[in-house]
């Protein structure tokens, strides 16, 4: 059985558009759950989504627990051995309080890639496969979140290209979620139940397309 760690923010946690972090789609509705069903019984999928999670930044309001880099290493060690780590982060880095351009958000993703490679939590101490997923762009209308994400809408459209550049340079896999789904208009940046389903199905195909050695 191969194991996959899905490391992300509220859109991996399954937060409902327009709701709170406690308003969450069910396990089989969230994209990791859909992906698990599509892949079949030979795959073990681990969900690690946290609302508000950043790539590498301590949140001055919500605390350092939102810093993805602080939690990634113990998370990997807890679930090792891991065959594949999927990272879908970046949206929260665009909050006005961080003042980060898309290129710096991508560098945060690069730090996480380096950490995974350095720890090497794969089978027999190897580096696991790594798949970076760029979140879909935010919509122009993000309702009551405008003051928090002011200016983030335009930046969000540039994340995919920056993520692809960093993924290519560090020789890991990349997928642009915005190529198959859109953010829900209920709040402009979370995913609908339908989007979760679509993403889960597509991500299963991306996982299988990696080209696994069946002898391992």
From TrEMBL:
Signal peptide: none annotated. This is SGNH/GDSL hydrolase family protein. Residues 6-196 form the SGNH hydrolase-type esterase domain. SUPFAM superfamilies: SGNH hydrolase. It comes from Hoeflea poritis. GO terms for molecular function: hydrolase activity. It comes from the Bacteria. Keywords: Hydrolase.
């Amino acid at each position: 059985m191969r194991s996959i760690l899905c490391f992300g923010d509220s859109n991996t946690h399954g937060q409902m558009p327009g709701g709170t972090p406690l308003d969450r789609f069910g396990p089989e509705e969230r994209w990791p759950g859909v992906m698990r069903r599509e892949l079949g019984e030979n795959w073990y999928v681990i969900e690690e989504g946290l609302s508000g999670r950043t790539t590498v930044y301590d949140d001055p309001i919500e605390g350092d627990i939102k810093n993805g880099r602080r939690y990634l290493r113990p998370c990997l060690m807890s679930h090792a051995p891991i065959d594949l780590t999927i990272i879908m982060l970046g949206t929260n880095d665009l909050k006005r309080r961080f003042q980060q351009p898309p290129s710096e958000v991508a560098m945060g993703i690069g730090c996480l890639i380096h950490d995974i490679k350095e720890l090497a939590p794969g089978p027999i101490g190897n580096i696991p496969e790594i798949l970076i997923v760029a979140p879909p762009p935010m919509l122009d209308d993000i309702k009551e979140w405008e003051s928090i994400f002011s200016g983030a809408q335009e930046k969000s459209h540039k994340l995919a290209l920056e993520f692809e550049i960093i993924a290519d340079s560090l020789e890991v896999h990349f997928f642009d979620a915005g190529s198959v789904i859109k953010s829900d208009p209920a709040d402009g940046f979370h995913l609908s139940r339908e989007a979760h389903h679509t993403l889960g199905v597509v991500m299963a195909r991306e996982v299988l397309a990696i080209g696994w050695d069946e002898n391992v």
